[in-house]
Amino acid sequence: MSSSSSAAAGARPVLRTFTSLLKLCAGRGDLATGRAVHAQLAARGLDTESLAATALANMYAKCRRPADARRVFDRMPVRDRVAWNALVAGYARNGMASVAMEMVGRMQEDGERPDSVTLVSVLPACGNARAIDACREVHAFALRAGVDELVNVSTAILDAYCKCGDVRAARAVFDWMPVKNSVSWNAMIDGYAENGDAKEALALFKRMVGEGVDVTDASVLAALQACGELGCLDEGRRVHELLVRIGLDSNVSVMNALITMYSKCKRTDLASQVFDELGNRTRVSWNAMILGCTQNECSEDAVRLFTRMQLENVKPDSFTLVSVIPALADISDPLQARWIHGYSIRLHLHQDVYVLTALIDMYAKCGRVNTARNLFNSARERHVITWNAMIHGYGSHGFGKVAVELFEEMKSIGIAPNETTFLSVLSACSHAGLVDEGRKYFTSMKEDYGLEPGMEHYGTVVDLLGRSGKLEEAWAFIQKMPVDPGISVYGAMLGACKLHKNVELAEESAQKIFELQPQEGVYHVLLANIYANASMWKDVARVRTAMEKKGLQKTPGWSIIQLKNEVHTFFSGSTNHQQAKEIYARLAKLIEEIKAVGYVPDIDSIHDVEDDVKAQLLNTHSEKLAIAFGLIRTAPGTTIQIKKNLRVCNDCHNATKLISLVTGREIIMRDIQRFHHFKDGKCSCGDYW
């Protein structure tokens, strides 16, 4: 035996040992040990040997060092298909789709024919890069090479198509597949879910279960996502029962998805039950439950959960803050707003663009629009959502011109507005009576930016025109809409008709609304009030009878004021507050004081009772009770802030202006539509709301 052949034979056990070590390093991402093994191989002159070099390239790729993998590959004197596949997979795994595709081309030039391993390696990179042409090219190659019938190849092809957004092509591949495994089904179901077709995702999942295919955590996750998007509670419960039967109730990711599904189906009670029974809660579990409460307007519960999370020593992340901050915005307590802002600074998360945007929105909704602007100005990074939050904040406070200026500044520095931006600026124009600007921006939305207006955009334009008294133009605008108008559009029209006392158009708008079968009684109440203002009592009775038959009720008005971490809620005429006697005494005195400076009760807004009773009913509206309580419980000069669930009525608006004058207090009122800043007898809305 020659010395060279004996040396080679002696090297083989060493090579096997080192390649096994490199495989372990690759699996663990242990770059330091991998480099040490590389050094040992180089010292023995074995680092360019095919087996060793391939293992080294694979190790470097899996340790996120594709450049090092390439250097090892380039030094190889002979490269086989396994080596090429290792490099292609390395580039693909590190998100370098175009280089991976280039290597497949080079591989063929080098005389090596790509196999199924090559294709399965490169396809995920094509999908992640949304390189649809590359996907089609690989698919065509698979067909020519006759490997498209292999289940792993066809699954990788359909998954890549899904990631590129071509679900129809993916489904064609799926339906053609002679053999499908659970991975194939999961890829197709997830593809539908991720591309917004929840209905088809759920239908395919049900078919998968019906055909007896093994259901895995991946398919259950996609099914739960689909149930949540569709609001299909019954289907969601069936998936819940299934996952318990197959033992997935111990999988925390699945249970987190279950919490999210129940929350999206507006059943926070069921979500909370799952959360409370979850033994191994993660931060994601807490985030899902907090977000569920926030999205279902259970703001107090969201804040309580956040507090409990801290007590259990679970460290919040940016997602936690983005979930709980909107709940604090809904509560509208400036003290809590300042606390969460300080807390985000302590966590070093205040400059995260999503946290910062949530803080800006929160301060605006707490009546502190100047603080919101200071935060906006301090931002290191401004995403389009950050601009949207600030524009919306100005609009909701009635500062339409400032909102428009900010919108123009945004465009001037090259930030493209999106649908939400236009909705915010249109709303700002509506609240400020900027009709010409609003018209211009609505036209610009499609002509300049290619954005298709949604139902909310149309509704806001109708509101803009209607508020300004251009009822005929608003009605003509509705008739020309390219889509069927929804309740929000006709609702805006009905509101404008009440404001400008147009019974004829009100009846037409209301008829269209009732055909769409609204679940709330607000539109019936609005029409009844329009009839009452026109003294059309028979029509008032007819509308009220229709409400009773449909089981619709008027939403009771309430106002809240928060003092020293206590929320005090007042309903019109309520006497159950522990300081009710003092409140009514202070209110009676207040009415006399404002009457002395010109207050006259707006008794036209109440019907069916005598004038003296009308005045008495007006004087016990919830916002007046909340303001009287605030005057009793706060020091002179303190700003009073209240929140109301309905639009503030004309009488309360006039009264609050005069209360701010006689008491020298600033009063901030957030109603369902906007903010009103009352000071020195004036309101920031300029009586245009």
Automatic annotation (TrEMBL):
<feature type="repeat" description="PPR">
    <location>
        <begin position="181"/>
        <end position="215"/>
    </location>
</feature>
<keyword id="KW-0677">Repeat</keyword>
<dbReference type="GO" id="GO:0009451">
    <property type="term" value="P:RNA modification"/>
</dbReference>
<dbReference type="InterPro" id="IPR046848">
    <property type="entry name" value="E_motif"/>
</dbReference>
<dbReference type="GO" id="GO:0009507">
    <property type="term" value="C:chloroplast"/>
</dbReference>
<protein>
    <recommendedName>
        <fullName>DYW domain-containing protein</fullName>
    </recommendedName>
</protein>
<dbReference type="InterPro" id="IPR032867">
    <property type="entry name" value="DYW_dom"/>
</dbReference>
<dbReference type="Pfam" id="PF01535">
    <property type="entry name" value="PPR"/>
</dbReference>
<feature type="repeat" description="PPR">
    <location>
        <begin position="282"/>
        <end position="316"/>
    </location>
</feature>
<keyword id="KW-0809">Transit peptide</keyword>
<dbReference type="Pfam" id="PF13041">
    <property type="entry name" value="PPR_2"/>
</dbReference>
<dbReference type="Pfam" id="PF14432">
    <property type="entry name" value="DYW_deaminase"/>
</dbReference>
<feature type="repeat" description="PPR">
    <location>
        <begin position="383"/>
        <end position="417"/>
    </location>
</feature>
<feature type="repeat" description="PPR">
    <location>
        <begin position="352"/>
        <end position="382"/>
    </location>
</feature>
<feature type="domain" description="DYW">
    <location>
        <begin position="598"/>
        <end position="689"/>
    </location>
</feature>
<feature type="repeat" description="PPR">
    <location>
        <begin position="418"/>
        <end position="453"/>
    </location>
</feature>
<keyword id="KW-0150">Chloroplast</keyword>
<dbReference type="InterPro" id="IPR002885">
    <property type="entry name" value="PPR_rpt"/>
</dbReference>
<dbReference type="Pfam" id="PF20431">
    <property type="entry name" value="E_motif"/>
</dbReference>
<dbReference type="GO" id="GO:0008270">
    <property type="term" value="F:zinc ion binding"/>
</dbReference>
<keyword id="KW-0934">Plastid</keyword>
<dbReference type="InterPro" id="IPR050421">
    <property type="entry name" value="PPR"/>
</dbReference>
<feature type="repeat" description="PPR">
    <location>
        <begin position="80"/>
        <end position="114"/>
    </location>
</feature>
<dbReference type="InterPro" id="IPR011990">
    <property type="entry name" value="TPR-like_helical_dom_sf"/>
</dbReference>
